[in-house]
UniProtKB/TrEMBL annotation:
DUF6504 domain residues: 428-502
Domain named UmuC: residues: 32-152
Organism encoding this protein: Rhizobium metallidurans
Protein name as catalogued: DNA-directed DNA polymerase
Matches recorded under InterPro entries: DNA/RNA_pol_sf, DNA_pol_Y-fam_little_finger, DUF6504, Rev_trsase/Diguanyl_cyclase, SulA_CellDiv_inhibitor, UmuC
UniProtKB keywords: DNA damage
Subunit structure as annotated in this protein's UniProt entry: Monomer.
EC numbers on record: 2.7.7.7
UniProt cofactor(s): Mg(2+)
Domain DNA polymerase Y-family little finger, chain residue ranges per copy: 246-332
GO process terms (BP): DNA repair
One Pfam assignment: IMS_C
Gene3D superfamilies: 3.30.70.270, 3.40.1170.60
Function: Poorly processive, error-prone DNA polymerase involved in untargeted mutagenesis. Copies undamaged DNA at stalled replication forks, which arise in vivo from mismatched or misaligned primer ends. These misaligned primers can be extended by PolIV. Exhibits no 3'-5' exonuclease (proofreading) activity. May be involved in translesional synthesis, in conjunction with the beta clamp from PolIII.
Amino acid sequence: MPRVVSVYLPSWPTDRHRRMLGQQAPPADQPLVMIAREGSRRLVAAANEAAIATGLRVGMPASKAQALVTDLIIEDLCPEEDRKELDRLALWFLRNYAPVVAVDPPDGIVIDTTGADHLHGNETLMLTGMVNRLFAMGFAARAAIADSWGAAHALARYRASPALVIPEGEAAKVVLGLPIAALRLDSGTVAALRTLGFDTVAELAATPRAPLALRYGPQIGRRLDQALGRAAEPIDPIRTADTIEARRAFAEPISAGETIARYVGILVVRLCSVLEEHGVGVRRLDLILHRVDNTLQVIRAGTAKPVRDADRLTKLLCDRIDKIDPGFGIEVMTLSAVHCEPLDAIQTISSLIEEPEAEVGGLIDVIANRGHRVYRVAALESDVPERSFAAMPALADDDELGWPAEWPRPSRLLLHPEPIQCMALLPDHPPASFTWRGSRHAVKRADGPERVFGEWWKRDKELGAVRDYFVVENDAGERFWIFRQGDGEHADSGSGSWFLQGIFG
């Protein structure tokens, strides 16, 4: 079943205007409205949350809004610029979330995420991640995921707060309780239906369609079917003018996996030749299959580094062909290089002395495209152990910092230091025993303390913070890395509590 995300940007024009001004932008709590002309009238076309909180609303005359709010900021609406920036935002979603993304003007984006949520954890994590990243950019956002574009669009605007995940097959009953304005009908039709007494989608869905179609045309029935998941609504993916693509249309639809794989190989070879002409390699590749029922099936493949090796790219795509549902057949295949980076030709030099370096890029790509996260750990400059490393891309350049060699470090660090109960003489003695996760360990040998000071130049609260680390060994030969908060003498250096940081393998 398809899964579609609708992202709603309720204050897109004002948020975009503030982002454009940067540091010169007015405070977020100051009322701001965007004005558009309708004939000789000047009307409020958009308002930020602060303006709405003062009682202003879209459609109000600008003169009235200015009279009601003395410190109101008024700017002219720029619909062309709003649309250009919305296109740019859609391209950002295309690169980061899913292969099928389209603009849902004037203030939304629609994304077909079928089969893509596992790359972001799950649907809930994916949706909250979208909203949080947009908020960090300065955009208010709400998002919903459902089985159809119509349902997701309605729920994002009338139910999401700020993210809403509707399980498969349950969107229709949720949509029925929404107002008729959620159906993407024009304002005139909505006003006329309200005059007739219709308030909710359920009331409209229970009414015979023939009289409605005779009076208002087929639009109402079509929007009802789209919102309730009864009619397919294709999403035309956004693409830039310079996107490198290879396309194949079939006189007769194809559906066999072997046939699909064969034409995937043909398209990849064709695409790689164009990539070579441009001197680039692909980092993200989308295979879009257009079915005869006007729906799409999509496969996305990513690489750790720029690639234009036809065999390698074909393997990545064909590895997921079993996920494709061809339905009654596929009539068009499109292969798009969504994200490319410069890639120079590499000459292979044969040597009888030096062994060639192992190429693990292909293996990393295969594992990553099966939904697993592949990374390496790099050292960071920090004395605090849990801040001294970070996850890096698997094929990122080696760091030159290295790891400290003065003191031994455990092979396994806990995700967070865990509290333990200790018996120890203060201030410098190691514990005689400690209890961790309900098990008591008698300490037979110990080394330390190694004193680590807080990063006072980064955090004021760590001005006097101290940790004393010990390497301890129990009677079974197991070695642990533990520390005490504080120096054991001064209260402002730490609480005196003990924690287990890591385990020596």
